[in-house]
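Exercise: predict the fold of this chain.
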Amino acid sequence: MVSSFGQSQELLNAASVISENCPTQIDNNTIWESIIAVAPNTLLYKYKLLDSKGAGVKINDFDNKEKEAINMMKSAHAFKPMRDRNVIMQFMYFGVDGYYIDEFKIKPEDYN
């Protein structure tokens, strides 16, 4: 088992390495802006939606994004280290105008 300090340092290092790829355009509408490690044991991903302003997005639009993220977390080889360490993945979405739209978290009980 990894100590809390060791695990926190691992998350900080992972976020630092991964963030070198940011910003990255994921699709026609989505830019992955950043990733940071936050306590406790959480990686926070921030996205910008290019065709949305904060006030104009329906929360229901995010049901599929959450399901897709859970499936990816369960199956993608790249996320195995996160699964092994029971990392919480938090996803935050902002409009092109910078206003907050929505967020969700994927916890170990969602992907184990």
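Check your answer against the key: Residues 28 and 50 are 8 Å apart (CA to CA).
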